[in-house]
Amino acid sequence: MHLLPKKLRQKLEFHRLEKEKNQDLIDAQAIDVSAVETLCLALGPYRNLTTLSASLLFLHPHCQVLNHGGARIFGDPRLDFLLDHEKETLDNFLRYAIAISTKGKRGKTGGSIVHSHAFDEKHKLGKLYRQHFGDTLVKEDIRCLFWKESLRTSLHIRNNSIDLDALFAREPRLRFLLPVRNPLDCAISNLRTGHARLFDLGKNPDTKRVLEAILDEIHWVKGLQEKHPERFFYFLENKFTAEHARKLAQFLLLTPDPAWISVVQEAFDIDKHYDYPRPLLAHYQNLVEKKFSAWPDLRQQLLLFSSQ
């Protein structure tokens, strides 16, 4: 297979995935989603605590998680509930998401969150999950589904001028979550992993441009949260306490079980921060002061990242 031309390999892989998707859609019809009260989508940049957030939610006994898979979902009229606001489309998505969250692989193909880097041996999450759920990948009683596809979802909403007011009027189950990693760390990580290309800043954007794009994502979600506080939730890496975990559960209509809150605090493991030159820190501070002047509390919390 690897001896075939790249374009031919891509074409064969596309057809393989389409065949697999069609079979998954057939198999998924038997899944009952009537108990699912909330569907929550990640927003914001990649490399932004989204995998950790999804993994923490997967530790809740009533939350199922789908990791990536946007290429198989966005644009498909059978599944793309952001474009088609009919209840049946969202139900189809839920069934399909639950079906494919039992398998898959690491990377954009997506599937189960257990294939993500957060479940690598060096982290606690895999061990904690097995302690509570063993090898079970589908919860017996799913009340919430969390889909981790962040920036591609944000871009899909904006590029298609999706009317969120109309969507919310039709679909009471829908929620959005923005975790906020130290934006400076997030910018460096996006540049190192190649995810920065999704910001459409040209071939070789510098750290300052990527950093501003990340702050723009936070600003966009904050504005939406002001308008729809019951539909948008965000938390910052430097301010995630047991109380924030409780509020997150309540936002998703999940029981804020003390045992889950305790294990979430144990599993909230952040990678070491990078070091930054003073000019970049000053640039960051100026951006935050300018962009978040309307929200003093959030501005102050973001500025704290530059003093760590």
Describe this structure in words.
This protein has 308 residues and is an alpha/beta fold. It has 13 helices and seven strands. The strands form two sheets. It has a five-stranded parallel β-sheet, with helices on both faces. A hairpin with a 4-residue loop joins strand 3 and strand 4 (110-111). Helix 1 (6-28) crosses helix 4 and helix 9 (207-227) packs parallel to helix 12. The protein is globular and about 55 Å long. The N and C termini lie far apart (49 Å). The model has no long low-confidence stretch (mean pLDDT 92).
Keywords:
308 residues; 10% strand; five-stranded parallel beta sheet; alpha/beta; 13 helices; single chain
Radius of gyration: 19 Å
From the N-terminal CA to the C-terminal CA, the straight-line distance is 49 Å
Q: How many DSSP-defined strands?
A: 7
Quick one: biggest sheet?
5 strands, parallel
Strand content: 5-15%
Compressed to H and E, one letter per element, the order equals: HEHEHHEEHEHHEHHEHHHH
* Tally of individual helices: 13
Question: What fraction, in percent, of the residue positions are helical?
Answer: 40-55%
Morphology call? globular
Could you tell me the mean pLDDT?
92
Give a topology summary.
Blueprint: H1 6-28, E1 38-42, H2 50-58, E2 63-67, H3 70-73, H4 87-100, E3 104-105, E4 110-111, H5 125-133, E5 144-148, H6 150-159, H7 164-170, E6 174-180, H8 183-193, H9 207-227, E7 232-236, H10 242-251, H11 258-267, H12 278-291, H13 296-303
Parallel strand pairs: 1-5, 1-6, 2-5, 6-7
Antiparallel strand pairs: 3-4
Helix pairs in contact: 1-4, 8-9, 9-12
